[in-house]
Structure to design on (533 residues):
């Protein structure tokens, strides 16, 4: 913190920071943790860190309270309140260099100073390894041919038990197999503990599933990481045989041929390096939604609560806006007749300005949506391709990984231009963009499910989409029976946004784009101590 309020008469404040979080759909704040107390300063640099789970698709509200500690009491009401700061975890992570600076508020009429919060992803669990093994002179187990060997890897648990973590393929009819290289996360292989035992069993495959045990050996990540060397040739031992036969040496050997460590880059590495997520909204203004002045309409403007369109916009937009530094969102409509001449448009600006369709924040989008409902006439048909192509034009102009585009289409689902939309999606799958479709109302959404491409990859005129970029959800699956809209919006956002980081990474991987280095971490200015001589 910088420039905290001074509450002590004879010396400076002794600040502490208390972090609170909120459960989803629950307004109640719970204490998450406290920093240490730093004596006699208005510019504390707290050391104690808070470790939290991060999910892109969830909104995690945070509250930081600051107190001047006056006694040993753990009861906060016994200490002087210095102010507080509210933000979301996404806001911190989405700020440049994952560093957020905000004013402390909460004491009327006083400047309470500022707080600087930085976040970093714990990187210990992101490595994976690519390994390849071969074996020599394994025991012959089959009566007619040689063995059909495969390997089974187990990691050991804290209590000494073993958990299977990988099986190789079967190499048929050989006592000297060479298995294909395989990739496994370090977490799965040894739980990130380099010295933990890894047990490898060698089996002879049998069609009926009663595979014959050839033998086993143990190793560890640290041993394997020496790579191909005399240390990584293992004797395969069958304990039963060893116990029975005096002359038993082994049941063959297994050799490590290669060992490569790959550090997986994460979604946050790109966000921290400055990649911006641009959010565009497209709203269905076709007549099948019903007359907006009637309560039965999906576009009905109820003064007391959001309609389904408003809920979908807010649910998704409030999370994504944390990752967009200028918070300016293009908002488009399709399927309406526009004033003054009643021409039908499939990509019109909700704010009435085609040169500049940007709205400020989700509140600006909502305002423009309500305004255009009053001025346009709902019409048809329901064409998606124009708005998809609109965003694709922008995405095509920045393919260097500095920007990624997310288009949210909210629709009642009766699509008229299926062939053109598929063509647009197949073309867009090469670009840095994802499409979220939220279906509102009671219609059958079979066509939307087809666009989603989770079951069958979408194709157009014999060309398949390079990656899956569409996520569809029907809004009715999220309506909370008890009428708790906060909960239904949180659930909706969770499901539609959960696939975005993976879709984002798949684009970056295919293009070979690495994250930009993050800006240098914040180092507090050094206070020069003046000494009296």
């Amino acid at each position: 913190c910088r420039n905290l309020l001074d509450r002590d008469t004879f010396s400076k404040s002794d600040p502490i920071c208390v972090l609170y979080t909120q459960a989803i759909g629950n307004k109640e704040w719970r204490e998450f943790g406290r920093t240490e107390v730093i004596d006699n300063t208005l510019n504390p640099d707290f050391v104690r860190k808070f470790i939290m789970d991060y999910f892109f698709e969830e909104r995690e509200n945070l509250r930081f309270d600051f107190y001047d500690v006056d006694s040993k009491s753990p009861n906060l009401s016994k200490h002087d309140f210095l102010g507080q700061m509210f933000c979301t975890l996404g806001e911190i992570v989405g700020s440049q260099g994952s560093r957020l600076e905000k004013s402390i508020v909460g004491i009327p009429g006083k400047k309470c100073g500022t707080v600087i919060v930085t976040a970093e992803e714990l990187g210990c669990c992101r490595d994976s390894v690519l390994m390849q093994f071969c074996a020599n002179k394994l025991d012959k187990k089959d009566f007619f041919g040689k063995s059909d060997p495969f390997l089974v890897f187990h990691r050991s648990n804290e209590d000494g038990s073993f958990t299977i973590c990988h099986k190789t393929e079967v190499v048929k009819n050989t006592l000297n197999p060479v298995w294909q290289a395989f990739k496994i996360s370090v977490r799965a292989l040894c739980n990130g503990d380099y010295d933990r035992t890894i047990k490898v069993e060698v089996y002879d495959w049998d069609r009926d599933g009663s595979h014959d045990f050839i033998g086993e050996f143990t190793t560890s990540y640290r041993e394997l990481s020496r790579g191909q060397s005399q240390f990584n040739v293992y004797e395969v031992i069958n304990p039963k045989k060893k116990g029975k036969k005096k002359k038993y040496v082994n049941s063959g050997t297994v050799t490590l041929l290669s060992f490569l460590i790959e550090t997986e880059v994460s979604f946050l590495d790109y966000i921290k390096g400055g990649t911006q997520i641009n959010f565009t909204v497209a709203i269905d203004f076709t007549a099948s939604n019903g007359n907006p002045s009637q309560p039965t309409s999906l576009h009905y403007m109820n003064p007391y609560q959001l309609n389904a369109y408003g809920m979908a916009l807010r649910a998704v937009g409030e999370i994504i806006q944390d990752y967009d530094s200028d918070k300016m969102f293009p908002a488009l409509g399709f399927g309406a007749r526009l004033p003054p001449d009643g021409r039908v448009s499939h990509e019109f600006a909700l704010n009435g300005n085609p040169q500049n369709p940007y709205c400020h924040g989700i509140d600006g989008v909502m305002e423009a949506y309500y305004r255009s409902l009053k001025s346009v006439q709902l019409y048809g048909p329901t064409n998606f391709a124009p708005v998809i192509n609109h965003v694709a034009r922008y995405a095509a102009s920045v393919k260097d990984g500095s920007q990624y585009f997310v288009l949210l289409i909210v629709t009642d689902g009766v699509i008229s231009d299926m062939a053109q939309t598929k063509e647009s999606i197949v073309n867009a799958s090469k670009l840095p963009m994802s499409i979220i479709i939220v279906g509102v109302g009671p219609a059958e959404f079979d066509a939307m499910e087809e666009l989603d491409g989770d079951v069958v990859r979408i194709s157009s005129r014999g060309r398949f989409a390079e990656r899956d970029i569409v996520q569809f959800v029907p809004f009715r699956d999220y309506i909370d029976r008890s009428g708790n809209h906060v909960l239904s919006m949180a659930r909706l956002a969770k499901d539609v946004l959960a696939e975005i980081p993976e879709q984002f990474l798949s684009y970056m991987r295919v293009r070979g784009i690495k994250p930009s280095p993050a800006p240098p971490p914040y180092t507090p200015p050094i206070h020069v101590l003046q000494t009296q001589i």
